[in-house]
Fold:
Amino acid sequence: MESYDPARMRAHEDAALFREALNYTAAETGFSQRVIEKDYFCSILAAHLAAAEPSLVFKGGTCLAKVHAGFYRLSEDLDWVIPVPADATRSQRSARAAGAKKAVARLPADVKGLRLVRPLTGANNSTQYAATFGFRAILSGTAESIKVEVGLREPLLRPAVQGRARTLLRDPLSGEEMIPAVILPCISLEEAYAEKLRAALSRREAAIRDFFDVDYALREGWIRADDRDLIAMVRGKLAVAGNEPVDVSQSRLASLRRQVDAQLKPVLRPADFDRFDLERAFAAVSTIATLLADAT
Structure:
């Protein structure tokens, strides 16, 4: 990672300017102040963690929004992977996670306003680690949280890339980004969407965000449902031990319908929410499920 300057990541310490920046950015972008503030703190966390532990590779929906695809949706958590062989033992995974655990533990001492609610803790034979950070929203005064997850289940199928993780918050005086982009190792765009498709197909509890991300990528032309390389990557992802079976049932679709207003609408701009069609997204994912089945 490029040289990291913590002094440039302290915009929130000037409370008056920070409030003004949140209101200005909300007016300019159409996102709510709440998710803009959370995106800002996600950047702070990402910068500190990537600087402290080089083995971490940024992934997931927040990586898509901040690095690869622009701010079409704001996420509320941070996902990372530490690549390991699929047959790595529990002790090997635990040893690889040690640096990330230390980085998480010392972060509140470096960032004013953040507290560690739950330390980075392993589960599922040390294949998955999770931590929770908290902060007090400057405008509403409510307690907010950001979940950090680190996976140690599998290797990457494509080499990690050096990405520029941007922050939505704008300086109300200049209109420029309030803090610099964070340079950090990221999962490739293609592999990120292969993981999105795996999640849409097999996540135990269906998540509407996965289907929105897939639908948006298809509409923008970033992926194609008939792309053989993409289908091969999804197949490889699904072959990793611990995945649930592919599920494109009507009961899964019904579960997703119940999430649209409660879970998706708050993190989207009105125009992007209006363009989303769950039936179209589910049909596309179902088509990919059929292609996967036909190829076996």
Q: What stands out?
A: Strands lie at 57-59, 77-81, 115-123, 128-136, 143-151, 161-165, 182-186.
